[in-house]
Amino acid sequence: MITLDGLRKVFPAPGGGDPVVALDGIDLHLDAGRIHGIVGRSGAGKSTLIRCLTGLEKPTSGRVEIDGTDVAALDGAALRGARRNLGMVFQHANLLDSRTAAQNIAHPLEIAGVPRAQREARVAELVELVGLSGREHNHPAQLSGGQVQRVGIARGLAAEPKVLLCDEPTSALDGGTTRQILRLLADLRERLGITVVIITHEMAVVREVCDTVTLLQDGRVTQTGDLVDVAADPHGPLSGELIPLPPVPTGVVGTILTCDYGDSGTLRTSEDLVRAAERHGAQAQIVAGTIETIGGRQVGRVQLALRGADGRPAGPELLAALTAELTEAGVVAREVAA
């Protein structure tokens, strides 16, 4: 559905200094009908990527292909036509205060010249779809934050796009409302078969709703893939953020071993890991742990404090034997440097 091929965007520096490379050769393919999360810290290139996807910025080089059309090569009416395949949802919905919810949803259809009867039918359909029945005649000031965002989502869907691009859609909402909006996006994907791209810095959003995730750093893609695979890769930059560990308590005696496991291996729980350690003559204590359900699968990360039979921190021979068994069982185990 979306293919970025060698996407590069360079901005000239004010005052004639060195140019700013915002996007540096991005290659990325996003399949249709899935929910994709694109994450990165401030300055990673997320905003520039959005503007290139929507055709608001022309890339310095490379292709931006959406549903088979290179948006970067279009201008004028052709570009406006291609943009109809892309709906936008913003962090702040930026609704028109003088218009009701229904009138805000209808606004892009008015601009596109859609006849009134057709507009009204489409708005009624969207109001029902996003759960705003009974609120369609309210003005923005009469709506909650979540209801305002539902209006924004309905407006983004008005022209029946194939892709819904959401820029930080929940960062201004509380936790409960965030979960409702994410469930709505997942439901829309299922009912409409639409492709959803969520630009976010919130890992909770990625864990909750995304099928795939891409990390941007300094204008480059540094990790991308199915969410479960990325979360289960302990050597990748995103794993620790998707499955964070609480701090290890102070005063723990033992060699600390971090273990990453999933429900597809033969050791599927933290208790399994403790029993494996005990089979090697170790005393094992769980000192930190996190279990997340990601993509319908449980993925866990625990830290064990290991001591030998004499009560002293486990030595290299015990660690080597235990690590070999864990590896064979599909667990990634690594010692934490003291």
Automatic annotation (TrEMBL):
SMART domains: AAA
Top-level taxon of origin: Bacteria
InterPro entries for this protein: AAA+_ATPase (IPR003593), ABC_transporter-like_ATP-bd (IPR003439), MetN_ABC (IPR041701), MetN_ABC_transporter-like (IPR050086), P-loop_NTPase (IPR027417)
GO MF assignments: ATP binding
CDD domains the record matches: ABC_MetN_methionine_transporter
Keyword ATP-binding: yes
Protein name as catalogued: Methionine ABC transporter ATP-binding protein
Organism: Brachybacterium rhamnosum
